[in-house]
Design goal:
Layout lengths: L6 H21 L6 H8 L3 H7 L4 H18 L11 H18 L4 H9 L4 H27 L9 H22 L3 H16 L12
Helix pairs in contact: 1-2, 1-4, 4-6, 4-7, 5-9, 7-8, 8-9
Length: 208
């Protein structure tokens, strides 16, 4: 458990963390050393180890958490307001734009891959991100189903899982090709599938 910090201490820790994350986004984790972080954030070694006693591994794990939070924040407010088809389209566009701007280097994947299985916390970061992301998409599907915009037999959690799998697959291909074509296709086909099962007027109420 992280110890309680003063306001100044918390600000210093956040400055180091955000500086490290910026360097990793630009250069990748393999080419970012602690010396780079010290120079880039104007931090002494004693300061860095004061806030990250575990050294580089603890700092990288904190960067992973920061990047995981950023994945969801970059989709807001659209992700939390999937209550109409225009809203879903706006979210789709937001996701595509987010990954197009990110480019071929995914900082979260870079950090978690580097940490690997030797750092259980890294897997937990990704697991929690996927769980939260799927839950928010599922909430949108559930809202649309209850409003009669999606068929009553659609399982919100499975539909959200399929959309999320499509996004992740598209992002993985983008990391190899630099193109968002597959990501866009996965989202477009996923949303088209949901819309194709739209409940007909009067069928939700009479149970047919």
């Amino acid at each position: 458990m992280m110890r309680t910090l003063t306001r100044k201490g918390a600000a210093t820790r956040q400055r180091i963390l955000e500086g490290a994350a910026a360097l990793i986004r630009e250069h990748g984790v393999a080419d970012t050393t602690l010396d780079d972080v010290l120079a880039g954030t104007a931090t002494s070694k004693s300061q860095l180890f004061h806030y990250f006693p575990g050294g580089r591994e603890e700092l990288l794990l904190a960067v992973a958490r920061l990047e995981a939070d950023r994945v969801l924040e970059d989709q807001r407010p659209q992700l939390g307001d999937l209550t109409s088809w225009p809203a879903w389209q706006a979210w789709r566009d937001k996701v595509v734009d987010r990954y197009r701007r990110q480019g071929r280097l995914c900082p979260l994947n870079s950090v978690t891959s580097h940490l690997g299985s030797r750092t259980p916390g890294a897997q937990a970061v990704v697991t929690e991100l996927m769980r939260s992301w799927q839950a928010e998409i599922a909430a949108g599907v559930r809202h649309m189903r209850d409003a009669g915009e999606i068929g009553p037999d659609v399982d919100p959690d499975r539909a959200a899982a399929a959309l999320l799998a499509g996004i992740q697959g598209g992002v993985l291909i983008q990391m190899s090709t630099g193109e968002t074509t597959h990501l866009e296709a996965a989202l477009d086909m996923g949303l088209a599938h949901l819309r194709a099962g739209r409940a007909r007027p009067g069928r939700v109420a009479d149970g047919l």
